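Predict the 3D structure for this chain.
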Amino acid sequence: MGFTRGHELAQITKAHHTGISVRSLQESTKFYKELLGFEEVFSWNPQAEYIGVLTGY
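Done. Predicted structure below.
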């Protein structure tokens, strides 16, 4: 994708959510919260059947 004359580029100002696959949810949560200062606003059960279907596990 490039700039096309006469068209404006999208102005992205924030992200709604993201997904990251990690080896250890507990260790990764600690890293993001304690070292990077992230706030956990929602948590889910990774063993839930529908999550496995969506992620291929």
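Residues 4 and 10 are 12 Å apart (CA to CA).
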